Amino acid sequence: MRKRLNSFILFFCITYSFAQIDTKFIDHLAANDLIKEHESYLNSLKPISDSVYYFKAKFAAKYERGAFLINNYALSGSLCNADTSFQKQASIHFLTAADQRNTSTWFAILNSFPIGEKSDLNIIYKASVDPNLYTKETFPFELQRSYLKYKRVYNKKPIAAAFFSAILPGSGKLYAGKTKTFFLTFLLNAAYAAQTIESTRKLGIKHPLSIINAGAFTVFYLSNIYGSYRAVIDLRKERKKQFITDATNFYN
Fold first, then answer.
1. CB atoms within 10 A of CB 27
2. How far is it, in rounded angstroms, from Cα 88 to Cα 80?
3. How much is the pTM?
4. 172 close to 229: Cβ distance less than 8 angstroms
5. What's the pLDDT score for residue 23?
6. What is the DSSP letter of 206?
7. Are 119 and 83 in contact (CB under 8 A)?
8. Residues with Cβ < 8 Å from 12, sequence gap 6 or more?
9. Contact yes or no for 125/103 (Cβ under 8 A)
């Protein structure tokens, strides 16, 4: 019922507001990706009304101009708010944009009215920021696995991975879920440690070879600690990106 009411409101607003705008021409420009002509036509529209800002916001969503989209969205009155299709397109853009500076602003705008707050993609955004806000039942079955994989790694602590690797080289990688890397890191550190101990025992700690071996071991040992710390952070980003990709593909 609410969707029908929104559609009626949108239809009424568009019919009333777009009398001086050639919507078919705009559709033609958009369908053929005539960016310069599309932008020039929108800039030529006078006087500038809510409907002009609405079409400028749609233009910005199509060509992924985040800040321009937000500015025109705010000036479009109720038109953008009533267009759920446009909101979905814009939300997908902001979720997947390489530059995330405007993403939080966009979803803050959606949160300012009830329909936007409860939209599927707004929930996806909130879950991407903090997956602990929800349970798997919040999401469609097709997204539950991706969500749980992200939630599990989100709750792992980089500092814990570093601590584990300080005690047993490579174990932080195992904690992060990188089993193969764990074995390689452990074997390399064990080999350098054994070589350092052996050269120190036979040649003495001040011998150049012992110093070189000790230096190499120290570098690998510290790298193993930092690498484990970074492994959790990188895996978080990877799983978050995959969750967002799966969600946008599902809802698109």
1. 10
2. 11
3. 0.76
4. yes
5. 86
6. T
7. no
8. none
9. yes
Spell out the residues 6+ positions from residue 226 whose beta carbon is closer than 8 angstroms to its own.
162
Among 6-15, 46-55, 149-158, the range scoring the smallest mean pLDDT is 6-15
Reported as a single tens digit per residue, the pLDDT across 225-236 is: 999 999 999 999
Distance, in Å, from the CA atom of 24 to the CA atom of 42, rounded to the nearest integer, reads 13
Residue keyed to tokens 């879950």: 127
CB burial of residue 112 (10 Å; 0-12, 13-18, 19+): exposed
In DSSP notation, 124-166 reads HHHHHH-GGGS-GGGS-HHHHHHHHHHHHHHTS-HHHHHHHHH
Q: How far apart are CA 23 and CA 27, in angstroms?
A: 6
147-162 pLDDT tens trace: 999 999 999 999 999 9
Phi-psi region of 64 (alpha: psi -120 to 50; beta: other; left: phi over 0): left
CB 127 within 8 A of CB 243: yes
| Nearest partner of 102 among 80, 130, 69, judged by Cα | 69
Helix 50-62 and helix 23-31, axial crossing angle in degrees, nearest 10: 10
Q: Give the list of residues 6+ apart from residue 59 with CB closer than 8 angstroms, or none.
A: 30, 38, 39, 42, 65
